[in-house]
Specification:
Length: 120
């Protein structure tokens, strides 16, 4: 089971609010099973319908375990494009939804299956 630090999830929610109505996106860093930090990918493009990571700008960092991005629609289900990205970028992926509070997030594995990520 994965855990995420409460202050990190709050920061992700605030960054998502700040990006609204565009999506916010970043990579997740973990130590063991605890997600403790995000990594911003240089050149990331945010729009109202997608976040585009230029993966050749991804840092060489073995603590990166997945991704996080927001859905301004409030729907926290992954799109086909999300599923494609999940398959290439780690084992845990979080989608946060509008109105960006601590209750509106869901996590998925690299195949798009729901997984549990508890707040620490």
């Amino acid at each position: 089971m994965w855990l995420i630090k409460r202050n990190l999830l709050q920061m992700i929610m605030e960054a998502s609010k700040d990006s609204y109505p565009r999506e916010f996106g970043a990579l997740l860093r973990a130590e063991g099973n605890i997600i403790y930090e995000i990594a911003l990918v240089p050149g990331t493009i945010q729009s109202e319908r997608y976040t585009l990571f230029y993966m050749y700008n991804k840092p060489i960092d073995f603590s990166i375990v997945g991704s996080v991005h927001s859905h301004p629609s409030g729907v926290t289900l992954p799109s086909d494009e999300d599923l494609h990205m999940f398959s290439m970028t780690g084992s845990v992926h979080i989608i946060v939804g509008y109105p960006y509070n601590l209750d509106n997030y869901r996590a998925y594995d690299r195949s798009g299956n729901p997984i549990q990520v508890d707040v620490l």
